[in-house]
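A.,

Following up on our hallway conversation. Structure tokens first:
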């Protein structure tokens, strides 16, 4: 091997710089030129990647070591040069305390010259030559080695700048593409995002997971790069990924940027595969809630910088927006369908109730007629008992039909109040007396403290009173009393209001029912009523009526100790002729 002069060496390297587009090849030429110029057995180049120097070009060393062998910054002569930024030349390296052989090298190195690849204040790598024998007189050739190292540094820098530009352009393009991508089908969309992020950041792995709305169960998980995605069906079968490491990220929204998971107390326990050494993760917010994680990782430490974080954050917010928008339109379609179904049901109920009302009313009228006849005929006492029961049942049927018609009116906006000025005490008294005529099983008592004038819909308030009394009778044992009181009190807002309370001595209402009995169609779980099952609409309609008057209705009860239902209606001052 002929020895190259410094001039020849530089000329050769500068020559390939303009001819060869591939940086790897240029570095290869630099390594072998350095070797020839130094008349060494080996010429090689280690580049700084994270906290290590990785062998990226070599001449005279086994080629399988390239890309595999690395040393820590600060370790061995090469590591020391990278750390200190100073050239070192040793005639007998083995006697040097700092010397550490390159992992995998089998040759017996003696002479060693290592030049830092300096770029402004940074050292981006080292260019080294090694010989089994001491170098021939090297003199100014060390300057040549340093020049070659500097050329290598600039080549790397150019390459990195170019790569950065290319990546930035790719990233901008990707963001644009994501913004225009439809989310008709979630999995392909997420897969596209994961793949694109993987190539735009040039990482080893990308993982995009979407969580359940309410828990931290992963429902969608896709992976970019070589490992592929999982459909919800796969996930149902598979074990859930461990997300303990992301608890903070989901709770606070703080991204995770970890240069080395092996040095992180929590992460090292979760990411045990050698594929994950450094990691970057950001939350994905959908509809204002953090419901996903976008994570990229690399098998190398120190792989991620602030720019990567900025890019990933942009992607995550685009994913959140797109998925959120798709969620919303899906939900709108669903609500639309639900509303149409609801409306059809209401119309049907309304029509059926309306059609039923007339025949039932006719039935009731005939029954009343027959009953009256039977009552005056002493031979027909058993008939009158039967007819009495028939009348009771037709009354119940009519009241259920009325409830359904009321419900339909309320839900279709046709429920209007017809206000008049009347005395609530008097109305309560009359309703109770009428009911007592029909109900022999209970004593119905009314206590009223004088007149209570209200401006309200009399027929509707009568409906409320009747419903509360009817329930009190229905849900308490025969022979017990039902008491209704009517009075006034000062309301929460300071004004006077009327208050009606209906108490019974029944089985009471369990706490879990108490919160729900005013809901539409809700019926208590306890089946202790006295034989008559209603529709679960009475209290719902009562509440609607009371609230439309500006009042309030509520219940108090302890199981086994009876119940008291109260409702309020604002009072109006008595008119002169009524007082
Ligand atoms: P229903 O037609 O079932 O009586 P309501 O809306 O009037 O419907 O009442 C809803 C539920 O509230 C009833 O099913 C019953 O469980 C409970 N409830 C109402 N009033 C009383 C009461 N006075 N005592 C015990 N439970 C009652």
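Then the amino acids I'd put at each of the 579 positions:
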């Amino acid at each position: 091997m002929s020895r190259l002069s410094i001039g020849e060496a530089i000329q050769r390297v500068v020559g390939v710089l303009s001819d060869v587009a591939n940086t790897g090849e240029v570095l290869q030429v630099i390594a072998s030129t350095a070797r020839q110029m130094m008349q060494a057995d080996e010429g090689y180049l280690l580049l700084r990647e994270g906290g290590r120097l990785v062998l990226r070009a070599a001449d005279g060393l086994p080629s399988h070591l390239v890309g595999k062998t690395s040393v820590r910054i600060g370790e061995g002569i090469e590591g020391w040069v990278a750390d200190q930024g100073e050239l070192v030349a040793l005639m007998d390296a083995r006697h040097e305390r700092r010397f550490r052989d390159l992992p995998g090298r089998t040759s017996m190195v003696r002479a060693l010259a290592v030049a830092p690849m300096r770029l402004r204040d940074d050292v981006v790598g080292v260019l080294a030559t090694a010989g089994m024998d001491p170098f021939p007189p090297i003199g100014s050739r060390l300057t040549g080695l340093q020049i070659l190292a500097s050329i290598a540094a600039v080549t790397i820098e150019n390459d990195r700048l170019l790569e950065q530009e290319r990546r930035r352009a790719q990233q901008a393009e990707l963001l644009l593409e994501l913004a225009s991508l439809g989310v008709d089908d979630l999995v392909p969309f997420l897969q596209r995002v994961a793949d694109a992020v993987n190539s735009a950041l040039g990482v080893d792995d990308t993982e995009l997971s979407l969580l359940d709305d309410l828990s931290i169960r992963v429902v969608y998980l896709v992976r970019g790069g070589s490992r592929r995605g999982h459909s919800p069906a796969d996930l149902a079968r598979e074990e859930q990924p461990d997300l303990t490491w992301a608890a903070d990220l989901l709770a606070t929204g703080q991204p995770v940027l970890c240069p080395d998971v092996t040095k992180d107390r929590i992460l090292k326990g979760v990411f045990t595969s050698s594929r994950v050494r450094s990691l970057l993760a950001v939350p994905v917010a959908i509809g204002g809630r953090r419901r996903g994680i976008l994570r990229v990782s690399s098998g190398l430490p120190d792989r991620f910088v602030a720019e990567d974080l900025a890019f990933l954050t942009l992607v995550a917010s685009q994913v959140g927006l797109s998925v959120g928008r798709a969620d919303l339109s899906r939900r709108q379609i669903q609500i639309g369908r639900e509303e149409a179904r609801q409306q059809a049901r209401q119309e049907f109920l309304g029509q059926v109730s309306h059609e039923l009302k007339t025949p039932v009313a006719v039935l009731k009228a005939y029954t009343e007629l027959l009953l009256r006849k039977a009552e005056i005929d002493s031979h027909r006492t058993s008939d009158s008992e039967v007819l009495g029961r028939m009348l009771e049942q037709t009354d119940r049927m009519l009241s259920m039909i009325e409830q359904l018609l009321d419900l339909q009116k309320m839900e279709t906006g046709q429920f209007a109040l017809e206000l008049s000025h009347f005395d609530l005490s008097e109305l309560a008294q009359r309703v109770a007396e009428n009911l007592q005529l029909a109900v022999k099983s209970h004593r119905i008592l009314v206590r009223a403290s004088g007149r209570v004038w209200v401006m309200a819909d009399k027929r509707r308030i009568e409906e409320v009173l009747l419903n509360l009394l009817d329930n009190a009778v229905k849900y308490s044992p025969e022979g017990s009393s039902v008491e209704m009181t009517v009075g006034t009190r000062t309301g929460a807002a300071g004004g006077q209001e009327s208050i009606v309370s209906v108490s019974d001595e029944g089985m009471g209402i369990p706490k879990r029912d108490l919160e729900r009995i005013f809901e539409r169609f809700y019926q208590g779980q306890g089946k202790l009523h006295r034989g008559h099952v209603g529709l679960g609409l009475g209290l719902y309609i009562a509440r609607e009526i009371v609230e439309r008057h500006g009042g309030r209705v509520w219940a108090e009860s302890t199981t086994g100790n009876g119940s008291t239902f109260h409702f309020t209606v604002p009072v109006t001052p008595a008119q002169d002729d009524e007082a």
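The chain has a mean pLDDT of 87. Curious whether your intuition agrees with the design.

B.
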